[in-house]
């Protein structure tokens, strides 16, 4: 699925809509340059899961957990990791077993840690606010 959004609001709305389609335990792997909108999209995911907390990028903490919604969201930023080995050192297997939606920014750094059924979201900047977003791995009903 390929969608063009023209504002941060539209990108959040796309995340909101996607959250409604995801079964518990889904990994959403994000790809895109700095400032592409990965965290903005994740804010929409959180809203779609009923999470009212302010979602922020976990760049320095590596992981932020949001448990207040209909389903939990665990938000990772892999920018500071060097490989999937680093991911496993922070307890990746434990996170997988929790049944939360896992949103992973900078996924290209840990690609080998993802199972085959991972949802992948590629975000490309096309100007200041326009984004071309390609989503793969969604099971359509």
Can you describe what's shown?
The protein has 141 residues and is α/β, with parallel strands linked by helices. It has one domain (2-133): 3-Layer(aba) Sandwich (Rossmann fold). The chain has four helices and seven strands, in the order βαβαββααβββ. The protein has a seven-stranded mixed sheet with strand order 1-7-6-2-5-4-3. The longest helix has 12 residues, at 8-19.
Write the layout of secondary structure elements.
Blueprint lengths: L1 E4 L2 H12 L7 E5 L6 H11 L14 E4 L6 E5 L6 H6 L2 H5 L4 E5 L13 E7 L5 E6 L5
Parallel strand pairs: 2-5, 2-6, 4-5
Antiparallel strand pairs: 1-7, 3-4, 6-7
Question: What brief labels describe this structure?
Answer:
about 140 residues; alpha/beta; Rossmann fold; seven-stranded mixed β-sheet
The strands making up the biggest β-sheet line up spatially as 1-7-6-2-5-4-3
Task: Give the integer mean of the pLDDT values.
Answer: 89
Question: Residue ranges: pLDDT <50 for 5 or more in a row?
Answer: none
Distance between the termini: 14 Å
| Helical residues, percent | 10-25%
Cα-based radius of gyration, to the nearest Å:
14 Å
Q: Care to count the β-strands?
A: 7
CATH class: Alpha Beta
Q: From the helix content, strand content and strand pairing, which structural class follows?
A: alpha/beta
From the spread of the alpha carbons, the general shape counts as globular
Question: Which sequence of SSEs, written as H and E, runs from N to C?
Answer: EHEHEEHHEEE
CATH topology, anyone? Rossmann fold
- Helix count from the secondary structure assignment: 4
What would CATH call the homologous superfamily? P-loop containing nucleotide triphosphate hydrolases
Beta strand % = 25-35%
* CATH second-level architecture: 3-Layer(aba) Sandwich
Number of domains: 1
Biggest sheet character: 7 strands, mixed
């Amino acid at each position: 699925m390929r969608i063009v959004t023209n504002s941060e609001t539209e990108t959040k709305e796309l995340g909101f809509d996607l959250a409604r389609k995801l079964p518990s335990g889904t990994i959403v792997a994000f790809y895109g340059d700095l400032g592409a909108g990965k965290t903005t999209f994740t804010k929409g995911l959180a809203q779609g899961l009923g999470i009212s907390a302010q979602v922020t990028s976990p760049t320095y903490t590596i992981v932020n957990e949001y448990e207040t919604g209909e389903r939990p969201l665990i938000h990772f930023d892999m920018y500071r990791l060097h490989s999937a080995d680093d991911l496993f050192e922070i307890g990746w297997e434990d996170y997988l077993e929790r049944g939360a939606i896992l949103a992973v920014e900078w996924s290209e750094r840990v690609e080998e840690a993802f199972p085959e059924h991972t949802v992948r979201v590629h975000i490309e900047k096309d100007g200041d606010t326009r984004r071309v977003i390609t989503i793969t791995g969604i099971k359509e009903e």
